[in-house]
Structures are given as C-alpha cells and as structure tokens.
Amino acid sequence: EMEIKKMAKSGNREACKILAKQLVQLRKQKNRTYAVSSKVTSMSTQTKVMNSQMKMAGAMSATAKTMQAVNKKMDPQKTLQTMQDFQKENMKMGMTEDMINDTLDEIFDESGDEEESQDIVNQVLDEIGIEISGKVREPYTIPQSLPSISSPLER
C-alpha cells in the first residue's frame, strides 16, 4: 500500500494499477491459505474422531465376543442348580456345627466343672474380702459446717 501511494504521488498511474492488482491477488491468496489451513485442521480432527470410533468399535466387538462365550458356558438352569446345592450344603454344615456345639456344651455342663469352678470363685472372693476388709479404713465424715476463716480485712 505504501508503494501504491508513492507511485500515485509521483503520477505513475500504470504502476499504481499493477501494484493494486498484486495487492488484491496477495489478499485473496492469504484468504485461500487461511481457508485451506482451516480445512486441514478440520480433516485432522475428523481423522482423530474416526480413529477413536474404530478403537471403540473394536473394543465393543471384543466385549460382545467375551459375553457370548460366557453366556454359552453359563447355563442359567445349571447355575441355579449349583446355587441351590450350595445353599443346601451350607445349611447342612450349619446344622452339623450346631449339633456338635450343643453336644460339647452338654458334655462340659454335665461334668460338674461348673460347681467346682463356682467353689473356686467363692473361695477367691472370700480371700479378697478378708484382705479388703482388713485394709479398709473408717469412712470419711463430711463436716456439717465449715470453720470460718477471717478475711484479711477483718484482722
């Protein structure tokens, strides 16, 4: 633009026209370059999106195949039967454990150990009671009234 002004001041009209055409072509080329750059960026983004979609489709395909394999191997009726068998056996084990515990409790309760252990507890408590009663002092008495203390002002 500066050169066009220079040529116009010097009166060279032909040079002004040529420089003006070059300026217009340069501006158009600049706009085309921006447009192409924008399209290239858009294509790059589109390529990344398509690549991500391909990876996601592959992962979904692999997941579907895995789920099919699991569903083929896991017969719902068989799984239900297995769970019912487990529950039944678990209940049997619980009942057996309860029976064993009850039997052991009966054996230990009938052996007379409880009476003997109660005698030992009573003996220990008697011994402690004797020791404690020998060490216990008279209970503290709380005075009914407090002695008066004269204040420093009264002296």
TrEMBL record:
One of its GO terms (biological process) is vacuolar transport. InterPro entries: Snf7_fam. It comes from the Eukaryota. Gene3D superfamilies: 6.10.140.1230. It holds the Pfam family Snf7. Belongs to the SNF7 family. This is Charged multivesicular body protein 2b.
